[in-house]
Amino acid sequence: MPRHTPVAVTGIGAISPYGQGWETLLEGLTACRSGIGPIPSADNPLDNVPMVGRVSVPLEMEPPAGFRLSRTDRLALMAAREAGAALPEREEDRRGCAVVVSTTVGGLSDIDPAAMREPARYYRRGGLGTTSTYPVFHAADCVAAALGLGGPRLGLSVACASGAMAIAVAAGLIEEGRVAVALAGGSDALSSFTLAGFNALQALDREPCRPFCQSRAGLNLGEGAAMLVLEDAAHARARGATVLAWLAGWAFSNDAFHPTAPDEEGRGLALSMELAMQSAGVRPDDVGYVNAHGTGTLLNDAAEVKAYEKAFASRSRPLPVSSTKSHIGHTLGAAGAIEAVITLLALRTGTLFPTLRLERPIETERVELLRSSPRRSPMEAAMSVSAGFGGSNASLVFQRSPDARG
Questions:
Q1: pLDDT (tens digit, 9 = 90+) per residue, 136-160?
Q2: Structural domain count of the chain
Q3: In this structure, are residues 159 and 392 in contact, taking their beta carbons and an 8 Å threshold?
Q4: pLDDT tens across 297-319, in order?
Q5: Which one, of 240, 241, 233, 237, lies nearest residue 84 by Cα?
Q6: Most confident among 62-71, 85-94, 365-374 (mean pLDDT)
Q7: pLDDT at residue 406, rounded to an integer
Q8: Is residue 390 part of a domain?
Q9: What CATH number did the domain enclosing 380 receive?
Q10: Burial of 60 (0-12, 13-18, 19+ CB in 10 A)
């Protein structure tokens, strides 16, 4: 696979169950606090009480003129405004900035269960206004309007790999010379319909999840958003922007296997990692940490470990891997974006974040499934891995410098 031209990351923003801002996210991860707890009874559509990662900070804000905001939109705007502080100040530069935002839930997060029981009555009594927030591109529209970004605008929904794919698509626009700057990421809010769906699939853990543990029993859903400002290297240098890290490689793949289950051998996910490393020009030994997809389900975690064993087969030492979904839950369309920010923070701080509640790791000789407490480990390159229903896979390689090859 041809090498990608490294793209500068000049801004980041996040909102998570830990609270508002990327610094709050880093603090929660470093302290190994669990952001997962019982869902409030008023938001629970199930007979049981699921564990979720819920954002508890106020989300009140003035919408852009003409827009109605769903909870997903509000999360996206909070992350975008934090990251957007790093955007070029000149209006003419912002008018050319691309916006790529992913979501799987979108405005469906705000649908009242009454819409299922009596849809005509629900929409006649005011529910009709919520329909403007349903399309997957609506969050991207809101972000573009709020920040005055007039370049290409894309909304992506490719299951749980969406957040990573949004970042990679934006990087591709920069690499191709279509734009100099892009704001990219993902946002998803908790939804009664999503909870009911995963409950029907018997994929939810009734306790805080424990990815990669032999006793794992499923996932916990979460909510949040994260955004990255991506920039052409020459453009970033010309305006004196601070470069936080470099997105050096990225790749997609597809299992072509099943609507919900992963390929049991992890072949598609392994391919995305192999291609991402090739496109970044790094070797398996150059990668100091992998932030895993790591949902906590029986099939996903087993297949994912096999994928690491395949993709990093030539590595001379065990590969450090952890799932930070054990900290904040599975944020669906936002997961790949939040985990990209976490990977970048791990790279910048030289910290390996553990998987929480991992008592009996899946047996593997080639993969070090991180647990217990954070560990200092300076590194030059780190990877974020995402997967989703339908077999969608995406891998992102971040580096401290434009060329981190050993």
A1: 889 999 999 999 999 999 999 999 9
A2: 2
A3: yes
A4: 999 999 999 999 999 999 999 99
A5: 241
A6: 365-374
A7: 42
A8: yes
A9: 3.40.47.10
A10: exposed
The residue written with tokens 């339908």 in the block is 390
The closest alpha carbon to 56, from 46, 43, 68, 69, belongs to 43
Co-location of 66 and 195 in the same domain: yes
pLDDT at position 159:
93
Q: For 255-279, how does the pLDDT look when each residue is reduced to its tens digit (9 = 90+)?
A: 999 988 889 999 999 999 999 999 9
Residues 200 and 275 in one domain: no
Q: Is the pLDDT confidence value at 128 over 60?
A: no
Q: What is the dihedral of CA 177, 181, 186, 187, to 10 degrees?
A: -140
Alpha-carbon gap, residue 208 to 217, rounded angstroms: 10
311 and 197 fall within a common domain: no
Say how far apart CA 355 and CA 321 lie, in whole Å.
Answer: 9
Catalytically active residues are: 160, 293, 330
pLDDT of residue 127: 59
Half-sphere exposure of 48 (CA within 13 A, CB side): 12
* 263 in the same domain as 195: no
What integer best gives the mean pLDDT of the chain? 93
The reply to whether the predicted model has a pTM over 0.70 is yes
